[in-house]
């Protein structure tokens, strides 16, 4: 990895560290205010970009900042070539076109009744128990169940898959060789499950996305190889299981602290989508996106070299006061055209329509089926790892009369 020039601002910023997780927004504000484009010595060295202007410019310029080496620093434990994210145009569009049909706004709207019924069934179960954890019992349940439904996998496998993903992602930045070997073994197992599903679809085709990626021509009239198929489905599972969890619990925490907003949303359900967008802006589903420099370039006042890693921190960009006045304030009706919560440019989140729908249906179901619910914020636990996104590990809650 190239070393920065002597005049470059140098930091030890590490988005996977416990120090960052303790005060992510403050740490990013300090970096954004003093050195919006700086060199971090963590993880072998990379450029960290924190202001909105340069995050947007960098993510839009896929020719200079490529995702073909992987979208994470350090490498994702489930591989670096997640399709279609790991391709830039024009190849990216060929793969994404197939997936777009399954994640388009029209297709997600068509699926709304079945997703709504699934979410309501889950929330009704919480009502019967009268006490629960919003993370383990809802935020980590419905997104995975819906994703498995689209793929056509057995929903009973949700917990098994979630456990494997969670352990490996938590240890993504752990340099211990034994831990990394365990991550590698889980990656092998994960891909074996994907190939097993693919073999089943080739023998018994169904009306599901797994059948499409396992049996149909995708690019240039050819089917995906087994490796390509795994790289594609890994992305769908990782993103599908985790994208909405943090945003949902962050919204619930806000509503617990601001009962006037909770009452307002409950009484006017048309405001829920806007509230979701504002919470997603503040509490990003994904902390940052890594790219690799393809050619020597001047960017943000520094000289970057071919092969340098860059980290575009959308969690920071969405808190930039130059883009969003009073960025920490939850403001319904705010202009969020510049929000990078779901990324920016050609690699903008494939599942954003699904994420928005799941979040809205979860909030509506909580209002309808858990009237008067209370969250014990004193016992709620924020994640000690914010490298992937803003998450809670636990959020205990109960209905009135049940602590």
UniProtKB/TrEMBL annotation:
<keyword id="KW-0503">Monooxygenase</keyword>
<dbReference type="InterPro" id="IPR036396">
    <property type="entry name" value="Cyt_P450_sf"/>
</dbReference>
<dbReference type="InterPro" id="IPR001128">
    <property type="entry name" value="Cyt_P450"/>
</dbReference>
<protein>
    <submittedName>
        <fullName>Cytochrome P450</fullName>
    </submittedName>
</protein>
<keyword id="KW-0349">Heme</keyword>
<dbReference type="InterPro" id="IPR002397">
    <property type="entry name" value="Cyt_P450_B"/>
</dbReference>
<keyword id="KW-0479">Metal-binding</keyword>
<dbReference type="Pfam" id="PF00067">
    <property type="entry name" value="p450"/>
</dbReference>
<comment type="similarity">
    <text>Belongs to the cytochrome P450 family.</text>
</comment>
<dbReference type="InterPro" id="IPR017972">
    <property type="entry name" value="Cyt_P450_CS"/>
</dbReference>
<keyword id="KW-0560">Oxidoreductase</keyword>
<keyword id="KW-0408">Iron</keyword>
